[in-house]
Specification:
homodimer; about 210 residues; alpha/beta; seven-stranded mixed β-sheet; about 45% helix; about 15% strand; DNA-binding
DNA sequence: CACTGTGAACCCGTTCACAGCA
DNA sequence: TGCTGTGAACGGGTTCACAGTG
């Protein structure tokens, strides 16, 4: 790693995911031609970015390219996987066995990237003990112990807005490292726990704002 | 409207949604006390923002507050609804009747905000003609005509990555105004069509990056 | 006195432009 | 020659600090 990952813009990380996705696509499509290298211009064109930005983003982490040639596809892919932590397995739990929970459990992108859904947790007696797409549904009150004993590092919050903080607290007690919060509730936890929010209403309201102009 | 909505940072729009959410919550919780006003400091505290930022965001659109007092909750709520276009009804269609599609159809936040799901579209003969949470599933090939005749302004893309561009093109042909794209595909359309991307893998990969440091 | 509205300063990410190298 | 890596310039969003006002 070139730098100690300090002055790196946080949006750069999002883009690394996008570049990686782009390389995956190249691998699939061009299975025959088997392109060996790709330029920042090509990546930019495929992803809708600016070439300079692509180069700068990548340069934060090393000198992966060759001047006059471009980036070796295979190697760049490996490096991106390493940087993003996709070369490891990650245990995650999902709190909330609703529709969104189900969508996430079945989401193929997860397994592909080493995300291993270890359990789903809910408070509904009707659901506890059942399975959702091969994964067992546990009592939400067991989530703390589960996280602890099974060494789960990532929790996904898809519970109701009003129970979100309470469940997040349980996750924190269990020693969770990061939470992906799909509820519209602003979660407060010790700052060493990484929280990332995804809010579907916000996304739609952005659109209506611009349509409404 | 104070300004012509030009020099307004695009992230400000996201935050307006968050402030609005915060006001809604106040309305629910304090049903008895019925607070009349709220300060930028309180909003900031509830949402995890900076007070100056709250004030600046709101000031882009008018002078909603009173010095020494704060913002009148009811009125600010009304104004935010107006700004975000939530005082109107919006017709949306969902392309893709998978799990995520289902989660979105059932998502309560939609109806609450005037988002009216008019139809779901899929290419699976097994699904076409059936219903998903009260909404009829149509043949994906009819989406263009449907958008046109029913005057649908927003399309949600939850199809497979490889058919995403094709379906987006159909939407565009039908005269869609904005697309919320949940697929990992970079969609290319005329620039007058607003596209907004939400990518679940990216969100998770952000977390693994930071856990991996 | 408390809190808003806002110009100015600051900070950070993007883009440019070019030196450096295969 | 073609394309990377990067310092410098730019632009835009955030924060500060305070004047203005109920």
């Amino acid at each position: 790693m070139k730098q100690n990952r300090k002055n790196i813009p946080s949006i750069t990380i999002n883009r690394l995911s996008i570049y990686y996705r782009c390389l995956e696509k190249l691998g699939e499509i061009e299975g025959k031609k088997k392109l060996k290298t790709i330029s920042s211009f090509k990546i930019a064109e495929m992803t809708g970015m600016n070439p300079a930005q692509v180069r700068k983003d990548l340069a934060y982490f090393g000198e992966f390219g060759k001047r006059g040639i471009g980036y070796p596809i295979d190697n760049l892919g490996r490096e991106l996987r390493k940087i993003l932590g996709l070369d490891k397995e990650w245990s995650i739990v999902i709190a909330g066995a609703g529709n969104l929970g189900k969508a996430l459990v079945d989401y193929k992108g997860f397994k592909k990237r080493g995300f291993n859904v270890r359990g789903i947790f809910d408070n509904s007696p009707v659901l506890i003990g059942k399975k959702m797409g091969n994964i067992l549904i546990y009592d939400i009150n067991e989530i703390e112990k589960f996280i602890q004993t099974e060494n789960v590092s990532i929790g996904v919050l898809v519970v109701t807005a009003h129970s979100a903080q309470e469940v997040a607290d349980k996750m924190a007690q269990g020693g969770i490292k990061a939470i992906l919060n799909f509820t519209p509730t602003h979660i407060k936890l010790p700052s060493d726990i990484k929280i990332h929010n995804v809010d579907l209403s916000i996304e739609l309201e952005r659109l209506t704002y611009y349509l409404n102009m």
